[in-house]
Amino acid sequence: MYHLMKGLYMYATSKEEFSVLLLGLDNAGKTTLLEQIKAAHSTTQHPNLKTVPTVGQNVSTISLPDMYLKIWDIGGQHSLRGLWQSYYSSCHAIVFVIDSTDIGDAELAKLSSPDGHNEDDFGRLEECKLVLEDVLLNQDTEGVPVLVLANKQDREDCVEVVRIKEGLVRKVFEGEKGGSVRDSRVLPCSALTGTGVTEAVEWLCSRVKWNKEARPPTMR
Ligand SMILES: Nc1nc2c(ncn2[C@@H]2O[C@H](COP(=O)(O)OP(=O)(O)OP(=O)(O)O)[C@@H](O)[C@H]2O)c(=O)[nH]1
Ligand SMILES: [Mg+2]
């Protein structure tokens, strides 16, 4: 009887759990974003916005009415990027965070015709493009929804989201094999102020549910 009751209780209280990876170059704002998401889903916690570069990973599970989101924030430094791929096969969505103040004017086309430009004009645009391409082309991320966040939109020197979408993201996604087989979206945000964080989480929740047959959740 005890086991039956326990089983029923577990069944009634368990929820689906989906894993989300936060990826992006070092200093993009991944850990700050995780802090904001955690604080937004806690009644007591304030975000710790004094981050240090992540060496390894941070992980937090947030409880939503109909699911758990287990969010993995992985260090973006060059030497740590090799670790990312070990998370791909078990993730349900990827958030690729871009520092909107460190990509020149986000115009990929200008990279290939650098007349009159020096490297400083581009920030880390080329590096950002290569790293995003690498994520998309890995076979373990095939079909996984990808949310690109144009972060640091609170700063005056940021590139606006439409430019990032048209000049950088669309071109990288067009180069992807198989074209439009995955859900993707580009959204503006400021991890520092929290603007756009709710919209990002909402998009993730809807897409992991839609993609449930291809990548089933675990029950918890
Ligand atoms: N102005 C502004 N600064 C931000 C924003 N998000 C992050 N930062 C700052 O950018 C710096 C790096 O933020 P982190 O969250 O530590 O970056 P990260 O992507 O986790 O970096 P790694 O752990 O090295 O991969 C910190 O000084 C943050 O305060 C933002 O939306 N606006
Ligand atoms: Mg970090």
Q: What's the structural blueprint in terms of helices and strands?
A:
Layout: H1 2-13, E1 16-23, H2 30-40, E2 57-63, E3 67-74, H3 85-88, E4 93-99, H4 108-112, H5 125-137, E5 146-151, H6 161-174, E6 184-188, H7 197-210, E7 218-219
Parallel strand pairs: 1-3, 1-4, 4-5, 5-6
Antiparallel strand pairs: 1-7, 2-3
The structure holds guanosine-5'-triphosphate and magnesium ion (MG).
Notable characteristics:
alpha/beta, 7 helices, 220 residues, P-loop_NTPase, seven-stranded mixed β-sheet, 7 strands, magnesium, GTPase activity, binds guanosine-5'-triphosphate, 33% helix, Rossmann fold, binds magnesium ion, nucleotide-binding
- The level 1 CATH classification is Alpha Beta
Q: How many structural domains in the coordinates?
A: 1
Helical coverage, percent range: 25-40%
Percent of residues in β-strands:
15-25%
The shape, in one word, is globular
Low-pLDDT ranges: none
The unique ligands bound to this protein are: guanosine-5'-triphosphate, magnesium ion
Q: So what's the oligomer here?
A: single chain
Order of helices and strands: HEHEEHEHHEHEHE
Rg, alpha carbons? 18 Å
Number of strands: 7
Organism: Eremomyces bilateralis CBS 781.70
Keywords: GTP-binding, Hydrolase, Magnesium, Metal-binding, Nucleotide-binding
Pfam family, one: Arf
GO biological process, one term: protein localization to Golgi apparatus
